[in-house]
């Protein structure tokens, strides 16, 4: 899949800009606060309709305007597709593919991308919610159904937590119904994440072997909350935790408490990996994520690297640019990195200059 061009209208600090991209590496360089991340954010929107920076879509609309839009032309399996997202100050957004209005969930898997930004470099040592989100975002692009289950789970969880906080004699008998729904969705989510996590790690392993010159072996351990992905076992465990749940006002067991750790030569990366090792592992996970998308969709995804190259040393930088050479990647940076760049664009105060 190739992103041929993107057009932004009143999107953050871009008033009316068009950029054309090539296959290979596209460098977007510019000083701070010029719009580089804004541009990456707008391109990421084609994967799911959602931003990685904020759930508040009103922020996309340029100050003083009442709407914003982002349009992209993609080539996939030899066919061109035009996707457009329109955001409004006082109504919900609209999404069009080839001029036909679609639901947001229909975007998943249509224009897949792998995003890599500096916060992710600390993925391994961040809080568990960061790691769960990383898996959820990746899985949703290859398994849109997973996204629906996750959305449903979050709704059930919110309603159950509401009940736990406001429990009294008359409404408490519905708790078991919520527990059953929670257990059902939770078991699917945990099982899907667990198997994805294992497959992703197997894919990442070959990259880590390469980057570490065969010194490091990567394995993963996904920890399922409650210790089981069996719906009925989980249901019973949740029911048994009733008193704790009522006391805290929160669901204590379920997919929202899962986590994973990675192991380098058998040692927990979360506890023992050096900063350099952590960065190598994340890099390898990103490459593995792209391979998984290619395996499912038959085409390599668009790679979006926001400001990460400058964070990596020369060895890791060369490693990643070698692996994606020839693939389409859009890289933002304060300066033009040595030896990469099939097309170089400059961003200055919301203008894209070739
Ligand atoms: N809705 C908006 N309207 C106008 N400008 C915006 C809006 N949202 C963000 N900006 C501007 O975008 C700039 C930051 O752009 P960003 O892409 O984060 O910079 P960088 O090039 O450092 O990645 C800031 O100057 C900010 O004021
Ligand atoms: Mg930035």
Question: Which key terms come to mind for this protein?
Answer:
354 residues, binds magnesium ion, alpha/beta, six-stranded mixed β-sheet, six-stranded antiparallel β-sheet, 24% strand, 40% helix
Layout of helices and strands:
Elements: E1 2-11, E2 14-20, E3 25-29, H1 36-48, E4 67-76, E5 79-88, E6 94-97, E7 100-102, E8 113-116, H2 128-142, H3 144-165, H4 175-211, E9 218-223, H5 231-240, H6 242-248, E10 259-264, E11 267-268, H7 269-272, H8 275-297, E12 302-306, H9 314-323, E13 329-333, E14 343-348, E15 351-353
Parallel strand pairs: 3-13, 3-14, 8-12, 12-13
Antiparallel strand pairs: 1-2, 1-4, 4-5, 5-6, 6-7, 9-10, 10-11, 14-15
The structure holds adenosine-5'-diphosphate and magnesium ion (MG).
Adenosine-5'-diphosphate binds near residues 33 and 35.
**Cα end-to-end separation:** 23 Å
Q: Look at the structure and give the mean pLDDT.
A: 95
- Read across the widest sheet, the strand sequence of neighbours is 2-1-4-5-6-7
Order of helical and strand elements: EEEHEEEEEHHHEHHEEHHEHEEE
Ligands (ions, cofactors included): adenosine-5'-diphosphate, magnesium ion
Inertia-based shape: globular
Poorly predicted tracts of residues: none
Number of strands: 15
Q: How is the biggest beta sheet arranged?
A: 6 strands, antiparallel
Radius of gyration: 22 Å
Give the helix proportion (percent range).
25-40%
Given helix and strand content, the structural type is alpha/beta
Beta-strand share of residues: 15-25%
Discrete helix count: 9
């Amino acid at each position: 899949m190739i992103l041929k061009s993107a057009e932004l209208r009143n999107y953050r600090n871009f008033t009316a800009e068009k950029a054309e991209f090539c296959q290979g590496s596209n460098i977007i360089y510019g000083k701070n606060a010029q719009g580089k991340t804004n541009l990456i954010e707008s391109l990421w929107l084609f994967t799911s309709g959602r931003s990685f920076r904020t759930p508040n879509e009103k922020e996309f609309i340029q100050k003083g305007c009442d709407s914003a839009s982002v349009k992209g032309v993609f080539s996939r399996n030899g066919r061109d597709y035009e996707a457009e997202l329109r955001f409004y100050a006082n109504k919900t957004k609209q999404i069009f593919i080839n001029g036909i209005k679609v639901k947001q969930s229909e975007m998943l898997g249509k224009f897949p991308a792998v995003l890599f930004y500096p916060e992710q470099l600390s993925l391994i040592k961040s809080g568990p919610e960061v790691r769960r989100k990383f898996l959820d975002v990746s899985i949703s692009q290859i398994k849109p159904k997973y996204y629906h289950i996750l959305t449903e789970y979050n709704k059930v969880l919110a309603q159950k937590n509401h009940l736990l906080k406001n429990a009294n004699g008359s409404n408490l008998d519905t708790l078991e119904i919520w527990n059953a729904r929670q257990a059902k969705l939770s078991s699917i989510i945990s099982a899907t994440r667990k198997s994805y996590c294992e497959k992703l790690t197997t894919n990442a392993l070959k990259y880590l072997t390469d980057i570490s010159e065969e010194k490091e072996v990567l394995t993963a351990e996904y920890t399922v909350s409650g210790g089981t992905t069996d719906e009925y076992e989980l249901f019973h465990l949740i029911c048994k935790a009733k008193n704790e749940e009522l006391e805290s006002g929160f669901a204590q067991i379920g997919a929202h408490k899962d986590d994973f750790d990675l192991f380098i030569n058998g040692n927990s990366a979360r506890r023992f990996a050096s900063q350099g090792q952590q960065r190598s592992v994340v890099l390898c996970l990103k490459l593995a994520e792209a391979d998984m998308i290619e395996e499912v969709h038959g085409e390599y995804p668009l790679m979006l690297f926001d400001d990460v190259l400058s964070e990596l040393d020369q060895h890791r930088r060369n490693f990643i640019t070698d692996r994606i050479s020839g693939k389409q990647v859009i890289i933002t940076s304060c300066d033009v990195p040595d030896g990469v760049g099939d097309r170089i664009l400059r961003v200055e105060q919301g203008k894209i200059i070739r």
